[in-house]
Amino acid sequence: MYGVEHSECSYKSSALRGAAYVIAAQLVRVVLLFSSIIVLSRLLSPEDFGLVACLTPVIAFIGLFQDMGMQQAIIQRKTITDKQLNEIFWVVFATGMACAIVLCLMSPLVAWFYNDPRLLPLSIVASCSLLLTSIASIPLSILNRAMQFKKLAFIDVTANIVGFVTPIVGAIYCMKYWALILQPISIALVTAVGALCINAWKPGRLCFSIDRDIVGFGANLTGFNFVNFFARNLDNVLIGRTQGPLELGFYDRAYKLLLFPLSAINAPLSKVMIPILSRIQTDKDRAQRVYMCVSGVLAFVVTPGMAALMAVPHDVVLLLFGVKWQAVGPIFFWLGLAGLVQPLYATSGWLFISQNRTKEYFRWGVFASTTTILSFFLGLHWGALGIATAFAVTECFIRAPCLYWYVGKIGLAKTSDYAKIQLPLIAAAGLTWIVVRYFFQEELALHGAAIIIASLLLSYTVAVCSFLFNTLGISVLSELGSLPLFFLRMREGTSFKADDEKVSS
Q1: Residue 194 contacts by C-beta under 8 Å, 6 or more apart in sequence?
Q2: Phi and psi of 472, rounded to 5°?
Q3: Cα-flanking dihedrals φ and ψ of residue 80, to 5°?
Q4: What are the phi and psi torsion angles at 2 (to 5°)?
Q5: Which residues are within 8 A (CB) of 396 and not within 5 positions of it... i.e. 6 or more apart?
Q6: Is there a contact between 125 and 185 (Cβ–Cβ < 8 Å)?
Q7: What are the residues facing 2 on neighbouring strands?
Q8: Where are the domains of the chain?
Q9: How far is it, in rounded angstroms, from Cα 144 to Cα 290?
Q10: d(CA 398, CA 396)
Q11: DSSP 435-485
Q12: How do residues 6-56 score in pLDDT, each as one tens digit?
């Protein structure tokens, strides 16, 4: 039986240590990610990226069904038996194999849709990552449920180092777009092997039955992921189909440079926050306090950085990618506008999942996906830039305010708390843009690395000042101020000595 019996001290110790490991692993991952984007952008052409980007939504769509929400179901439940874990593993494995076969069978259709025969063999090879991901799924969720974040961090860092080296070597040896397809396969392979080797739990005999309540939880979560898929991938399909791989390559670079790092940060934080919030799900006031504090810290760390880069898009693109990617600049700016609300917006899933409110999560997904898809069609006439603009405007002025109201309405968090974090950061971003545009650029004539650094310093300074005008903002700054001391104590090995002694006694 995998239960959740922990003393308060032991629980706090595990949670904070786990957060430290996840943060450290994520720093490595983000560095590798940005380095990979920069290096591969100089070794490969925009068309190479665009070709693989055409395949990405197809893989993402089929991959929706390989997990069926079972990972989060394992983490969210108060108790789960070894028999239930074994049943879930084999069902997910069989589903992953079926997804890989479906992608292989669909490869001629994919090549026909994009009118590019190169996508046929690419689709077949890419199917390997679906099977490997399904093998790793349940062992990883068991480690996550047990808050074994050190082991998860080790697997993640190792897989991403391999995933960083593999495509670069392939690009050097002139593999072109094949180098890009090697990256997800190598990461999935190392993750699957690591998860199975490190985990004490091992699958037993074949069994394909699952409890009805687990299926219900997973079905609603899969429903959300299904409708959300169209909101996150239809833009790539429309641009690739109507504008071609070159313009899709520009859009893909801008999207990943701004929004993908956010998802790369949010995903590992979810590994910490969902099990923590699940353990305290019956104490709603405490869960809300923990959620808003962590969400506020995340928003403060990420949003001012996005605001600074959005203020100098052309300088960022030229510095990182080179002259051939200049068309990314305007797209980068508008996606940056959406990035101002994404850090706080994206954390709402922690509440829906940990509080077993996946039915409401699915309903929200239907609304959000519908408005996003409509925005894509509204902006399609103006190409990739039009889609980015329409998405950013609807994200900031429709979906984000509606989400904050909806979460408050169903009692998961207070709408006013969202406003206390989001509004100051947006105001700070606006002020940063004005100063950079009319003072740094026009009066001081800064450019390149100088204006990027100046913009970053200004943005975070203004953000700090904006948080001093409400109690929640001050609380977030206080938490940020305590982090250096926490990591110092972690490095010295004395962070939770008193707590551990109390638990052992």
Answers
A1: 136, 154, 155, 158, 159
A2: -65, -40
A3: -150, 140
A4: -100, 95
A5: 337, 338, 340, 341
A6: yes
A7: 80
A8: 1-202, 232-495
A9: 19
A10: 6
A11: HIIIIIITTS---THHHHHHHHHHHHHHHHHHGGGSHHHHHHHHHHHHHHH
A12: 444 444 455 566 667 877 887 888 788 778 888 888 888 888 888 888 888
Whether 187 and 159 have beta carbons less than 8 Å apart is answered as yes
* DSSP codes, 384-437: HHHHHHHHHHHIIIIIHHHHHHHHHHTTSS-HHHHHHHHHHHHHHHHHHHHHII
C-alpha distances in Å from residue 321, one per residue of 34, 169, 250, 328: 11, 19, 11, 9
Say which residue the tokens 């206390």 belong to: 420
**Residue written as tokens 């009319």?**
438
- Find tokens 């991403």 and name the residue: 160
Q: Is the pLDDT assigned to residue 179 strictly greater than 70?
A: yes
What tokens does 460 get? 């975070």
In residues, how long is the chain?
505
Count of Cβ atoms closer than 10 Å to residue 499 Cβ? 18
- CA nearest to 413, candidates 362, 339, 352, 502: 352
Place of tokens 């609603």: 220
The tokens for 502 are: 């109390």
Distance CA 126, CA 112 (A): 17
Query: Residue 146 gets which letter from DSSP?
Result: T
- Tell me the whole-structure pTM to 2 decimals: 0.76
* Element at 108 (helix H, strand E): helix 82-114
Q: Round the CA-based radius of gyration of the chain to a whole number and report it.
A: 23
